[in-house]
Design brief:
Blueprint lengths: L4 H8 L8 H8 L4 H16 L5 H15 L4 H15 E2 L3 E2 L8 H15 L4 H14 L5 H20 L1
Antiparallel strand pairs: 1-2
Helix pairs in contact: 1-3, 2-4, 3-4, 3-5, 4-6, 5-6, 5-7, 6-7, 6-8, 7-8
């Protein structure tokens, strides 16, 4: 069944997003390139929306991670750029380090950026790497530990370059 852009928009903007996230994950695995762009934009918007419930924002990280497996290089670059913008406010202060942010959400966002970064090259890899390095300033040990584990993975790729 072919889903049109308007149908996808409606689907991804479900009121009960958290309840239907498992369905969206299954649908996301079957999207074409244009549909992936729609889904990524929707999930990134929800992830970046501070008024959105934390559980929905966490589900968005999971859905983006699932979709990233099917993304083209250009889509991964765009996704990484948005993650870096979400993670850094004017490249000086981490939005995920704000006291009102959930530690688990900050950890999931860092993990998502690391997952995307593994598949990037050149400047885009370097930008993602720098964003993760700045996450080491996080006061929560689980976020910090997650970043350190990601550095082990990313350093292997860096050594290949």
């Amino acid at each position: 069944m072919e889903l049109k852009e308007e149908q996808l928009d409606d689907l991804f903007k479900l009121y009960k997003f958290d309840k239907y996230a498992y369905l969206l994950k299954g649908i996301a695995q079957k999207l074409d390139e244009k549909q992936i762009n729609i889904a990524l934009n929707c999930f990134m918007d929800k992830l970046n929306d501070k008024n959105e419930h934390q559980n929905i924002r966490i589900k968005c990280t999971q859905l983006i991670k699932e979709i990233a497996k099917k993304c083209s290089e250009q889509q991964l670059i765009k996704c990484a750029q948005r993650m870096c913008r979400i993670a850094w406010d004017n490249c000086s202060e981490s939005k995920f380090n704000e006291k009102n942010e959930d530690e688990y959400l900050r950890k999931r966002c860092s993990e998502l950026l690391g997952t995307i970064a593994v598949n990037l090259n050149g400047k885009h890899f370097d930008d993602a790497f720098k964003s993760l390095a700045n996450e080491l300033k996080d006061s929560d040990k689980s976020v910090w530990k997650s970043c350190v584990q990601l550095f082990v993975t990313l350093s292997q790729k860096w050594n290949e370059r």
